[in-house]
């Protein structure tokens, strides 16, 4: 039975929650309104909140200058491709760690996580050299590969925590019925873990979509994703804030929509395992 | 197992990757003249059959990417956009191919390039980058406010006159600041302005033995003049103002004078953006009678990295983009006022250009008076007018810029800022091995 919470406390928390949410949302909101201002108004001091005259010129200018569709296509291929490739590797890996652990499983998990602790620029030169020699610089498949490798630890960790929640007895029952390993994973484990896999997939698509360091460093035009697209609208001389905002808005729109439609899955995925 | 599979996968993917032969990859920054070139470059492709692949990046990202690529011999780029700061340093490292074919081409006429700019892009007499557009800095001022203050701006004023005029033009009640200057910290922000200004006061970054000079009376006078001028006649919150912020202030009629890049002249006189377009006059950057003026020199230029596989085609493109014919092409398509300025003598002799750009003569005088090979009153071991052309300068210049910006914001005194600048620069230069 739920605990009784006094009305004042409830109101207080609601206001607090709204305040924090607004604070977190404010940069996106600011980008949104700036995208519809003129360049002069975008930099005006004191700043205006809502545009005095709403204009769509910035979006036109952005489209004139750059190829949004090409960059968006690259973003989709890289983020979805790297996530699917990652899942292909991570599902068997997480299975073995969750259901057939060895003495070293915990260490391996920690080691994988530790690769995320080093700043990316620390391995920039080795990766760049490998990419140069394998002719992967400025290719979409090279980018997909690096994105898979970067996010693999997170994918495995997320799936591992999910799989741990699944009673091992069910898998054993399948084994008793004569299911082979592959069938066990494919027909028993995966269907039960679909919510977990789905939220892992969504989160990793978002992570890969927003990744900027590698996508900008390893590409030069052909394989550029939307993060490279945004970067091209900053200018050393002359006004650019409104156009930069318009470009940013175009770049985050697809992922914002994806997040909107899948927020239930995402929240469930991120809080899974919190209630044991 | 996983690693093996991945490697095999990578190899497979690598084998399917293809590289097309005659496509040039050009890395550039986002500014008006470059974007215009991108638009007109179809003509080059039509004439030569060479395809172009453009990479537009933010200035600092461009520097980082291009440096990574050059240092690892990556070969991602065939042409890169660099400034007068990078050109001599990178040339010295052997990272750039000299533009020998162009220099020998009579049609290209390398002698037509403005001598100051050419000097800044050369090493040991060889041209390593071709200027796409060049700029100096000068004074833009409001003719109406100057008249109201009862003063007349000379073509080449002194700092004393600028101080007097700025204080006379200031009208706090009507939100008019006598002078707007850069205050935002950064080697290419406030330090570009202050280093150039210090040259006119006889100051220098280093003596002939690379000893920092912030403890000299010349630097003290530079910083004191700057700070008191900004306190008496500068805008509020100036320590966060860079080029764009001051441009906006000036266009909105809130500055009596503004000393900044000559390229701003076309922005402040453009009636579409500027409320004061018909009331702007130009003058050379101020001096103190010591023989150097407080103006800088910069040129966004095109260079070929040593790692490029398409050097020949790349030089062909650079020849096209920085030629006299290109200037004529832009003039035909968009008018003489939109031609990239500051690279060729012939442009400034062109009566059509002189008519379309009233600031042309003053721009040329400013570029001519900046000498990157002898920037200061006393001799120095470095080249560069508003920077010191050594790799360490970006870091050191930004450190000092933060101290001076803090002094402008009133967080520390001028003496403290100079003392700390001296200490920090001495430490960094010792570490880098310039000072034993």
Describe this structure in words.
Chain A: Belongs to the binding-protein-dependent transport system permease family. Chain A: It is found in: Cell membrane. Chain A: Its main location: membrane. The complex is a heterodimer of chains A (276) and B (436). Chain A is an all-alpha fold and 276 residues long. Chain A has a domain of 167 residues: MetI-like (MetI-like fold, Orthogonal Bundle), CATH 1.10.3720. Helices cover 72% and strands 0% of the residues of chain A. In chain A, helix 1 packs across helix 12 and helix 8 runs antiparallel to helix 9. Chain B has 436 residues and is of the alpha/beta class. Chain B has 20 helices and 10 strands. In chain B, the strands form 2 sheets. In chain B, strands 1, 2, 3, 6, 7, 8, 9 and 10 form an 8-stranded mixed sheet that branches. The radius of gyration of chain B is 23 Å and the shape is globular. The interface between A and B is large, with 41 and 49 residues.
Brief synopsis:
The complex is a heterodimer of chains A (276) and B (436). Chain A has 276 residues and is mostly helical.
Annotation, overall tally of beta strands of chain A: 0
Proportion in helices of chain B:
40-55%
CATH architecture of the domain at 66-232 in chain A: Orthogonal Bundle
| Count of discrete alpha- or pi-helical segments spanning 4 or more residues of chain A | 13
Number of domains of chain B: 2
Largest sheet of chain A, in brief, is: none
* CATH hierarchy, class of the largest domain in chain B: Alpha Beta
Q: Would you identify the regions of chain A where 5 or more consecutive residues have pLDDT less than 50?
A: none
Q: Main beta sheet of chain B, described?
A: 8 strands, mixed
Please estimate the helix content of chain A.
over 70%
Overall radius of gyration of chain A: 23 Å
CATH superfamily of the domain at 66-232 in chain A: MetI-like
Following the backbone from N to C, one meets helices and strands of chain B in this order, namely HEHHEHEHHHEEEHHEHHHEHEEHHHHHHH
| N- to C-terminal distance of chain B | 54 Å
The SS-based structural class of chain A is mainly alpha
Radius of gyration of chain B (Å): 23 Å
Look up the CATH topology of the domain at 66-232 in chain A. MetI-like fold
Figure out the total of helices of chain B: 20
């Amino acid at each position: 039975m739920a605990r009784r919470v006094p009305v004042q406390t409830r109101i207080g928390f609601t206001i607090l929650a709204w305040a924090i949410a607004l604070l977190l949302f404010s940069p996106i909101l600011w980008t949104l309104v700036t995208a519809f201002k003129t360049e002069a108004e975008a930099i005006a001091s004191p700043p205006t909140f809502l545009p005095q005259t709403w204009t769509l010129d910035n979006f036109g200018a952005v489209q004139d200058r750059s190829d949004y569709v090409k960059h968006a296509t690259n973003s989709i291929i890289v983020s979805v491709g790297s996530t699917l490739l990652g899942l292909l590797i991570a599902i068997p890996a997480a299975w073995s760690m969750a259901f057939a652990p060895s003495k070293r499983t915990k260490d391996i998990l920690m080691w994988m996580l530790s690769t995320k602790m080093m700043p990316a620029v620390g391995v920039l030169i080795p990766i760049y050299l490998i990419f140069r020699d394998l002719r992967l610089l400025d290719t979409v498949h090279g980018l997909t590969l690096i994105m898979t490798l970067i996010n693999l630890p997170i994918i495995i960790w997320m799936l591992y925590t999910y799989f741990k929640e699944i009673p091992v007895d069910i898998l054993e029952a399948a084994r008793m019925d004569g299911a082979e390993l592959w069938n066990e994973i494919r027909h028993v484990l995966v269907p039960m873990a679909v919510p977990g896999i789905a939220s892992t997939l969504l989160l990793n698509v978002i992570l890969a979509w927003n990744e900027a360091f590698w996508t900008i460093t390893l590409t030069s035009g052909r394989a550029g994703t939307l993060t490279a697209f945004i970067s091209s609208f900053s200018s050393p001389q002359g006004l650019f804030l409104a156009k930069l905002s318009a470009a940013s808005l175009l770049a985050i729109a697809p992922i914002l929509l994806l997040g909107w439609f899948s927020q239930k899955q995402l929240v469930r995925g991120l809080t899974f395992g919190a209630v044991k | 197992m996983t690693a093996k599979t991945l490697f095999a996968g990578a190899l497979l993917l690598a084998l399917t990757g293809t590289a097309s032969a005659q496509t040039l990859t050009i890395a550039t920054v986002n500014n008006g003249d470059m974007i215009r070139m991108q638009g007109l470059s179809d003509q080059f492709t039509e004439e030569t059959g060479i395809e172009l692949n453009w990479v537009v990046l933010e200035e600092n990202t461009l520097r980082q990417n291009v440096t990574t690529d050059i240092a690892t011999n990556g070969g991602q780029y065939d042409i890169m956009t660099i400034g007068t700061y990078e050109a001599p340093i990178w040339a010295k490292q052997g990272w750039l191919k000299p533009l020998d074919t162009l220099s020998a081409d009579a049609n290209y006429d390398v002698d037509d390039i403005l001598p100051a700019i050419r000097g800044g892009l050369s090493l040991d007499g060889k041209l390593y980058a071709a200027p796409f557009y060049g700029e100096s800095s000068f004074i833009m001022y409001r003719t109406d406010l100057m008249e109201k203050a009862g003063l007349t701006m000379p073509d080449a004023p002194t700092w004393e006159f600028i101080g007097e005029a700025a204080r006379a033009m200031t009208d706090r009640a009507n939100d008019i600041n006598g002078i707007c200057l850069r205050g935002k910290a950064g080697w290419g922000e406030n330090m570009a302005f202050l280093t150039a200004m210090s040259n006119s006061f006889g100051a220098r970054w280093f003596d002939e033995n690379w000893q920092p000079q912030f403890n000299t009376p010349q630097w003290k006078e530079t910083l004191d003049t700057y700070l008191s001028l900004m306190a008496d006649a500068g805008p509020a919150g100036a320590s966060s103002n860079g080029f764009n912020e001051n441009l906006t202030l000036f266009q909105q009629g809130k500055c009596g004078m503004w000393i900044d890049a000559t390229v701003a002249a076309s922005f402040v006189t453009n009636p579409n953006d500027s409320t004061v377009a018909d009331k702007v006059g130009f003058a050379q950057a101020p001096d103190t009678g010591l023989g150097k003026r407080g103006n800088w020199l910069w040129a966004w230029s095109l260079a070929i990295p040593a790692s490029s596989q398409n050097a020949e085609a790349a030089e062909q493109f650079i020849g096209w983009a920085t030629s006299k014919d290109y200037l004529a092409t832009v003039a035909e398509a968009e008018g003489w006022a939109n031609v990239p300025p500051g690279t060729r003598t012939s442009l400034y002799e062109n009566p059509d250009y002189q008519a379309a750009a009233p600031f042309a003569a003053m721009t040329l005088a400013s570029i001519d008076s900046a000498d990157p090979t002898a920037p200061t009153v006393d001799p120095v071991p470095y080249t560069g007018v508003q920077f010191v052309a050594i790799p360490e300068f970006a870091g050191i210049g930004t450190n000092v810029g933060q101290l001076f910006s803090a002094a402008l914001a009133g967080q520390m005194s001028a003496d403290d800022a100079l003392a700390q600048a001296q200490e920090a620069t001495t430490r960094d230069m010792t570490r880098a091995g310039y000072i034993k």
